[in-house]
Structures
1.
Amino acid sequence: MKSIVSKAQAYLEQEKNLRNEVDEEIKDFELPKIVVVGCGGSGNNTIRRISQMGITGATTIAINTDKQHLLRTKADKRVLIGRSITRGLGAGGYPEIGRKAAELARNVLEELLSNADMVFICVGLGGGTGTGSAPVVADIAKKQGAITIAFAQMPFKVERARIGKAIAGLNELKEICDTVVLLDNNKLLEYYPNLPIDAAFSVMDQLVAETIKGIVSTIAEPSLVNIDFADVKAIMGHGGVSVMLVGEAKAQEKASAVVRDCLSHPLLDVDYRGATGALVHITGGNDLTLKEAEDIVENLTFSISDNANVIWGVRIDEEFENLVRTVAIMTGIKHKEFVGSCETLEEWEKENKVKGSTNTKEPKERVFVKSSAKEKRNTIIDRL
Ligand SMILES: Nc1nc2c(ncn2[C@@H]2O[C@H](COP(=O)(O)OP(=O)(O)OP(=O)(O)O)[C@@H](O)[C@H]2O)c(=O)[nH]1
Ligand SMILES: [Mg+2]
């Protein structure tokens, strides 16, 4: 008599064939509308990267006041905003111009985002177009009833005056968006000081692009352990300030290796101990075992709150033979733990004894403190 395991395997083979025969009507039924918007130069670069990689299940929109930059950006839809005030030449570092440009294009943006269920907004904070327009886009998306998630990159410390503008922009985004995934460009300087600036930026853009693509494919493509739109909504619908982790590992010991890779990624080195939610998505080949997948989730979420809402999914992709990739978003991070001592523009101005966000004085203290996450990470890595 066949063992239960071999019978189950035989059925699995039959089911694989069945999956390919899904009725077209069912396939198209109620797919959520997901839109990824890139605001300003940095946001456009992320969109260009996502478009190059190819994304199924989401449309991409690039918006900018800078015509030249927009022309270089590949997206499903490109929108030149504020042409009457900037003549297509950019917002020159003034967020108020970026905001006005977006407000003038509100009708067009409303139409593009109509009935959206989930909107991702990519922005490098500190400049004019992105910092000013991203909150307007977020506001439009929220009013359409969409879950609104921003991926915001904080500027380099040497960009000085831009830090104040970025904090102001970040606070606006925090007010409007359901989740703001924060990234720190300063880490590029710390870890890739000798890379040409374009190449360094492209590392950050790649990480953001892969994470968004990971979340979208989680929802849009069938998975073995499925995460559906409602699951993502449960975590990202009130995620607050969040961080992301990305890792990849090959061959032997891939479960512990991928966790180690996630936790030691130099650009994503932040303290997520207080996280109140986690969304973990694993992609692996047919060789990925249930135990390996569970170990990855267990080790990645080991240090977060006991009551945290943890949702995980697994997708099998034949091209991932002996390879496993993990993308995780940890939500509900305390802003202060992440951004250091300055939570508001007022605090930052007080600390630096300046008024207005156009100062050029260097902050007395690093705005981004190096987190103590490393120690904790080492503890987790030791466990592996
Ligand atoms: N990761 C990443 N960050 C970028 C990139 N380009 C710029 N930045 C960062 O994002 C901040 C804002 O820059 P931009 O996006 O070029 O500014 P903008 O929104 O186009 O604003 P204006 O040009 O003033 O209209 C900068 O201060 C940089 O710190 C990029 O390609 N990738
Ligand atoms: Mg620009």
2.
Amino acid sequence: MSDGIDRRSMLKGSTAALGAAGAAALGSASAQAQDVASPSGTPNVNTSITLNSTSRSFAHEARVTLLDLLREQAGLPGTKKGCNEGACGACTVLLDGERINACMTLAATCDGRSVTTVEGLAAADGTLHPVQRAFIEQDAFQCGYCTSGQVVSAVACINEGHAGSEEEIAEWMSGNICRCASYPQIIAAVQQAATEMEG
Ligand code: FES
Ligand code: FES
């Protein structure tokens, strides 16, 4: 894009919208004790999870993945579906604090566990997580499709203690593909956030 300021403003806006969507989702989550059934098929499994710090229960078919449950039943579309076969990292979420590919995880196996999506990273007052802020400040995305997964994965990467150098970050973030090749900026963002989180 020819005007860097305009592009930066656009990126800030889209991320702010992501945060607002997350806040809205959290708000609606608190009002729902039992969520709607899967739109297709006969629900035959009940799964209860702590989703972004809120207790949620879902009735669904046994075949439903965590990714589809999040996007289609929980109303949390921030987690993206890329390859849907465990190869791109767009669907990365935290399960009991550890990063996983939600497309490769059956929702039923998450019963009784804690799931954190990109919508759950910002504070309740909308203050962005240090990793989210760093991605904005480092211009660490272009189309943004991989960004939710990159951000969630970066949070785990830092918490795991795998952000000690550019090489280490590149290695431990290698499960998250960016087709726009924003890798230098992503690494810079992880380094910035790690400095803040570890300081
Ligand atoms: S959508 Fe899950 S790894 Fe690509
Ligand atoms: S910003 Fe476009 S795929 Fe990563």
3.
Amino acid sequence: MRHSLNKSKGPASRRTAERELILDLLPHLPGHFNAEDVLGAVKAAGVSRATVYRTLDFLVARGILQRVHLGEPGARYEVIAGRDQHAHLLCLGCGELSDYPLPLLQRLPAAVRRRQGFAVEHLLVRLCGYCHKCRARRPATFSQPISTKRKEGAHHVKRS
Ligand SMILES: [Zn+2]
Ligand SMILES: [Zn+2]
């Protein structure tokens, strides 16, 4: 009964137990998850929405998670502790977010700091486009050249 969230315990130990519960959950979540995914899994144990958000913030601050901003309400999170840097491929059709290994990113912060004196805090590289499933579904629309879209006055990458 490691995770019994006993109400008779003090608030501090309850917080620790809830944090542990969420930490143990991380390997079972999708690669990029949102707060609702976490909440859905821990609600039955009596963990509140506020606690989920507070714990996610805590884990981000500790460098265990990173927020993957998508220019839409709500963020997705992913575990970064012990992982290599990678770029994100965001499908503009279905919203699928996948990782793309990019070893160059590993060395980038040090290079930027050395050359420009700029200390990189977050490194998020996002490539927007259409995944193979969406391209198979609507090949005509999605293979439209960008120059045609510009004529319509819509810069299609800008969503937010
Ligand atoms: Zn897609
Ligand atoms: Zn990722």
